[in-house]
């Protein structure tokens, strides 16, 4: 079986078009057995490279990175709020600014080592991806109990809807290939303190953002779709596309994939990825009986048995917690999208 390698995302700021091409070449060459890299829009990245010669340190300890391409905008960051790996390409021109990681962009080996260092820092993210891959492969009914994932006598991960998911920081996809899923009674599992912890919703959401698999069932491309509830994760994980799709389904329940393409303007792959993320956390459904519809629009009880038979194991994973209608009402009335990173 081919082991899936997660894609880590690198964002750039302050680089010329030639520098962006050089950075993309470095990213393509930084493939390892644990991960690969790609260049993505700055706000969507797991890690950042900033051009040191165009970085200014402001009096309030914020950074401003000036654009090198006329059509781009500057980026402003609060140093205290930076929550991902960041490195600066030399030379640095901001007086008194001494970042922890610097490199020469034109030295490919040096730049590649920076990405490898970033990947080492992101081991918990890679381990969580391996666990989510195993869930996608085995599709256990997580709502039926708690689970331990064992490789021989070694505990690789614990998954429990209330506790969340915990995974050994050095767990690899290869280790999960040789592991067994063992069900336990609710309350009988403990997540070791050194395990990285994440909610099940966030685990599967992030997996849907990174995997090259098509996680959207085929009937979700043909049948009417319905909104069920907001994703149970922090809003910062939700992009404008996810909110746009949810807003469309709240306003007009029963839109098809083709309808959503027309109303959102998304292409096939972008819409499929948005819907996949909403699907794996149980936020959308193709079964109207499971939809969160206004009373006046509630479907009858004679639902479609074909739809019911194709319900996802992901939906059953996420459905054990009670619904939150107050959040649904809030989403229905809220037509906003999350604010992007500040750009001047």
Provide structural commentary:
This protein has a 5-stranded parallel sheet, with helices on one face. The protein has a 5-stranded antiparallel sheet with strand order 12-9-10-11-13. The protein is 33% helix and 18% strand. The protein is globular and about 60 Å long. The chain is built from 11 helices and 15 strands. The longest helix has 16 residues, at 123-138. Residues 296-344 have low confidence and may be disordered. Helix 3 packs across helix 5 (200-210) and helix 5 runs antiparallel to helix 8. It folds into 3 domains: 7-121, Rossmann fold; 124-198, no CATH class; 207-333, no CATH class. The protein has helices at residues 17-29, 108-121, 123-138, 173-177, 200-210, 240-251, 257-264, 268-280, 305-309, 313-318, 325-333, and strands spanning 7-13, 36-39, 47-51, 55-57, 62-65, 75-78, 86-89, 102-103, 146-151, 154-160, 164-167, 180-184, 196-198, 226-227, 284-285. It is α/β, with parallel strands linked by helices. Strand 1, helix 1 (17-29) and strand 2 form a beta-alpha-beta unit. The chain starts with 6 loop residues before the first strand and ends in an 11-residue tail after the last helix.
């Amino acid at each position: 079986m081919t082991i899936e390698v997660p894609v880590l995302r690198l964002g750039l700021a302050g680089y010329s078009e030639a520098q962006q091409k050089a950075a993309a070449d470095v990213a393509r060459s930084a493939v390892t057995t644990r991960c690969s890299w790609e260049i993505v829009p700055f706000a969507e990245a797991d890690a950042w490279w900033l051009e040191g010669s165009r970085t200014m340190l402001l009096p309030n300890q914020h950074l401003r990175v000036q654009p090198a391409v006329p059509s781009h905008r500057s980026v402003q960051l609060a140093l205290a709020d930076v929550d991902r790996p960041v490195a600066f390409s030399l030379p640095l021109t901001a007086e008194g600014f001494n970042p922890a990681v610097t490199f020469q962009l034109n030295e490919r080996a040096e730049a590649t080592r920076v990405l490898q260092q970033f990947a080492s820092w992101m081991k918990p993210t890679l381990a969580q991806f391996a666990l989510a891959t195993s869930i996608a492969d085995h599709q256990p009914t997580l709502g039926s109990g708690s689970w331990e994932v064992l490789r021989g006598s070694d505990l690789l991960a614990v998954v429990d809807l209330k506790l969340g998911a915990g995974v050994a920081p050095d767990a690899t996809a290869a280790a999960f290939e040789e592991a067994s899923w063992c069900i336990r009674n609710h309350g009988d599992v403990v997540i070791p303190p050194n395990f990285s912890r994440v909610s099940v919703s966030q685990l599967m959401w992030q997996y849907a953002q990174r995997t090259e698999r098509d996680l959207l069932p085929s009937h979700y491309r043909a049948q009417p779709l319905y909104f069920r509830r907001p994703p149970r994760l922090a809003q910062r994980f939700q992009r404008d596309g996810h909110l746009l799709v949810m807003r469309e389904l709240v306003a007009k329940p029963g839109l098809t994939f083709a309808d959503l393409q027309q109303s959102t303007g998304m292409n096939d792959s972008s819409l499929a990825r948005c819907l996949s993320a909403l699907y794996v956390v149980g936020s959308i459904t193709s079964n109207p009986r499971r939809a969160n519809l206004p009373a006046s629009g509630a479907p009858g009880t004679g639902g479609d048995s074909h739809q019911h038979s194709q319900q996802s194991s992901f939906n059953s994973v996420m459905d054990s917690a009670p619904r939150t209608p107050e959040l649904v009402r809030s989403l229905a009335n809220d037509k906003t999208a999350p604010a992007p990173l500040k750009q001047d």
